[in-house]
Amino acid sequence: MRKITYKDASAEALLMAMEEDKNVFLIGEGADHINGIGGQCLPAIRKFPDRVIDTPLSENGLTGFCVGAALNGMRPVLIHQRDDFMLLAMDQMFNQAAQLRYASGGRHRVPLTILSFIARRPGEGVTHSHSLQSIFAHFPGIKVGMPATAMDAKGMLLRAIFDDDPVIILEHRHNPLYNREEYVPAEHYETSLSSRVVLLGDDITIVTISITLLDALKASYDFLLEKVIFPEIIDLRWLRPLNIEPIIQSVKKTGKLLVVDTGWKSCSISSEIVALVAEQAHGHLKCPPRRIALPDAPCPASQYLEPLYHPNSEMIIQAVEEMVK
């Protein structure tokens, strides 16, 4: 085991899958570019240049091409450089790929992996900063994962590529996560379809999604633990299927729930988690659940407004202090 970045762990998964299965190929706008979509495709470009394919700007057509390839025995990894533009491919993703196994009575499978990125950089503005996971996770027939560690960036992507049904993996490209180094095994491994308890505690359950795991850990180590407040932090990892049981068991222990999401607050994954806890563990709640998420507005481009828009460790500290009084 050695230390590598989140980005390099994802790149390693892509190359490893291509080495293990000749039917795996990478395809996307700029996939074969000299920078390899932020470096992730570079190892694959060097070893398998004929299996890394650049495409025109046609998200819906490209996704339809990959659905057809998957139906004919290939395992395409389709890379959309922003999840914002996946909206242009909704028909192929959800009217076709997600439903074909059901519509064919199980005769047809679509082993398609869609890898996309959520941006959080100054000045990205309203068209390059969406976090659309709740929309994608709404549809049955497709899995949706959001890795928050280098270990999961590799393990979840490998699981997706070798799944016989379509999977969306959304990686967050905010620098504190993307360039963070962690110990990652060199061999092939796959992450289970479950959430993960990252930090044990008795005072409050904090459920995190994607990069908000780092915010929750920062809040805990920089402040909460010093104040003798012991949160239990759970990294959701997979949004569909949503593994609620570890969250239910944690809430039964702590009696308090805080969900921190990277998406908009209304009609969100955080809404679903709170609803499931209310249905299955209502009698154990000592106070109303709370959520920290994006306000119901597009992301501002202003360098002064943008830091106020995204969840952060200070918001978590304030919410936890109010809930554990």
A few lines on this structure:
The protein is an alpha/beta fold and 325 residues long.
List the keywords.
alpha/beta, Rossmann fold, 2 domains, 5-stranded mixed beta sheet, 36% helix
Report what the structure shows.
This protein folds into two domains: 2-184, Thiamin diphosphate (ThDP)-binding fold, Pyr/PP domains (Rossmann fold); 196-323, Rossmann fold (3-Layer(aba) Sandwich). It is α/β, with parallel strands linked by helices. The longest helix is centred in the first third of the chain and has 15 residues, at 6-20. α3 packs parallel to α4 (90-97), α9 (212-224) crosses α13 (313-323) and α10 crosses α11 (269-281). The model has no long low-confidence stretch (mean pLDDT 95). It has helices spanning 6-20, 42-47, 59-71, 90-97, 100-103, 133-137, 150-161, 175-178, 212-224, 245-254, 269-281, 306-309, 313-323; strands at residues 2-5, 24-28, 52-54, 75-80, 113-118, 143-145, 167-172, 181-184, 196-199, 204-208, 231-235, 238-240, 257-264, 290-294.
Any chance you could write out the topology, listing elements then pairs?
Layout: E1 2-5, H1 6-20, E2 24-28, H2 42-47, E3 52-54, H3 59-71, E4 75-80, H4 90-97, H5 100-103, E5 113-118, H6 133-137, E6 143-145, H7 150-161, E7 167-172, H8 175-178, E8 181-184, E9 196-199, E10 204-208, H9 212-224, E11 231-235, E12 238-240, H10 245-254, E13 257-264, H11 269-281, E14 290-294, H12 306-309, H13 313-323
Parallel strand pairs: 2-3, 2-4, 4-5, 5-7, 6-7, 10-11, 10-13, 13-14
Antiparallel strand pairs: 1-8, 6-12, 9-11
Helix pairs in contact: 1-7, 3-4, 9-13, 10-11
